[in-house]
Amino acid sequence: MLRYLQFILLLCPLLAWGNEKVDLVLVIKHENKLQLRAGDKLIQEFHVVFGKHAIGHKRQEGDKKTPEGRYVLDYKKADSAFYKAIHISYPNAEDRSQAKAQGVNPGGQVMIHGQKNGWGWLSFINQQFNWTNGCIALSNADMQQVWDKVAPGTVIEIKP
After folding, report:
1. Alpha-carbon distances, residue 116 vs 11, 36, 113 (angstroms)
2. How far apart are the first and last CA of the chain?
3. What's the rounded Cα separation, in Å, for the pair 16 and 89?
4. Inter-residue contact 73 to 67 (CB < 8 Å)
């Protein structure tokens, strides 16, 4: 019985490994990286690409820029035109206020997603350049891992 208990105690940390709760998705645009974090701990890192005009913060609909700042991943969309998608809460109140002051529509529907449905096999090419309309794109295999580990309500911080 003692050996059985020792075995269970040794096994518990292994069962918990890889099951950390992601509390922050950190995106670093100039490094093309998306990180899953739990507190100060890096859980996993992925290569990502952005809107065609990646430098700078999204200001208006159609500018093909990816927003910068702190948002929330507010819902998942399994039936997206892309391989799974997680919605980013852009625009926030500040984004809407700035757009209003400039007389433009801030846009919306910014997501983290995989490849366009039916084109996942081309991710080895697509992930070499910025091609989205302002979203954050991963390979389908990487998107599946993000999908499995990130819950709605998780904070996303997108840095330049």
Report:
1. 40, 23, 9
2. 56
3. 30
4. no
Task: Walk me through the domains of the chain, giving residue ranges and CATH numbers.
Answer: 22-159 (2.40.440.10)
Burial class of residue 153, CB neighbours in 10 A (0-12, 13-18, 19+): exposed
* Cα Rg of the chain (Å, integer): 18
- Token digits for 21? 């709760």
Would you say residue 112 has pLDDT above 50?
yes
Query: Mind listing the pLDDT tens digit for each residue in 4-48?
Result: 444 444 444 444 455 789 999 999 999 999 999 999 999 999 999
Cis amide leading into 67 (omega within 30): no
Tell me 69's DSSP state: E
pTM comes to 0.85
- The rounded distance, in Å, linking the Cα atoms of 58 and 65 is 5
Q: Beta-strand (E) ranges in the chain?
A: 24-28, 33-38, 41-47, 69-77, 85-88, 111-113, 136-137, 154-159
Structure tokens at 79: 């039936």
Q: Which two tokens stand for residue 138?
A: 């991963």
47: its two tokens: 């290569």
